[in-house]
Amino acid sequence: MSIEAKRDQIVVDILVERLHQGTLKARGKFKYTCADAQMKNSERACVLVEEVGEVCRAVLNVDGLAKDQDYMGNVEHLRAELIQVSAVALAWLEALPLKQGRLR
Predict the structure, then answer these.
(1) Closest by alpha carbon to 56, among 25, 78, 34?
(2) pLDDT of residue 103
(3) What is the pLDDT of residue 89?
(4) Which region, left, alpha or beta, applies to residue 73 given φ > 0 means left and ψ of -120 to 50 means alpha?
(5) pLDDT value, residue 71
(6) Contact, 57 vs 66, CB < 8 A?
(7) Burial of 18 (0-12, 13-18, 19+ CB in 10 A)
(8) What is the reported pLDDT for 70?
(9) Whole-number Å distance between alpha carbons of 10 and 79
(10) What are 11-26's pLDDT values in tens digits?
(11) Number of helices (H) and strands (E), helices first, in the chain?
C-alpha cells in the first residue's frame, strides 16, 4: 500500500471516529464533544490528555512494559487510540474559528 493510500485510509478512520463521537453523545454517553460551544478549552484539553494517556498505556502494552490481558503487544489497539486522539483534536479544531489561508 502506498503512503498516500495509507494516509487516505487513516484520514477516513479519523472521520469515522469523529462521527462516532457524535453518535455516543446522541446516545447520552457524554454531554458534549470537543466540537460543542458549551465546552471550555480547559475541558477540551482534559479530554485530549485523557485520550493521550490511553495512547501511553497502549504503548506500554505494545512494548511489553504493561500487561493488560487483552492488549499486550496489540499494535491495532495503539492505532485505535491514536485515531481517537486525532478525532478529539479534530473536534476541538471544529470549535475554533477557521483561519483563512494556510497555517504557515
Answers:
(1) 78
(2) 62
(3) 98
(4) left
(5) 87
(6) yes
(7) buried
(8) 84
(9) 10
(10) 999 999 999 999 999 9
(11) 3, 0
Residue 78 burial by Cβ neighbours in a 10 Å radius (0-12, 13-18, 19+)? buried
pLDDT under 50 in the chain at which residues? none
Q: Which three cell numbers stand for residue 99?
A: 483561519
CB 32 within 8 A of CB 39: yes
User: Can you tell me the distance from the alpha carbon of 53 to that of 48, in angstroms, rounded to the nearest whole number?
Assistant: 9
Q: Which three cell numbers stand for residue 76?
A: 491495532
Place of cell 466540537: 35
User: Residue 81 is placed in which grid cell?
Assistant: 487510540
What are the b/e assignments for 46-61, b being 16+ CB within 10 Å? ebbeebbebbebbebb
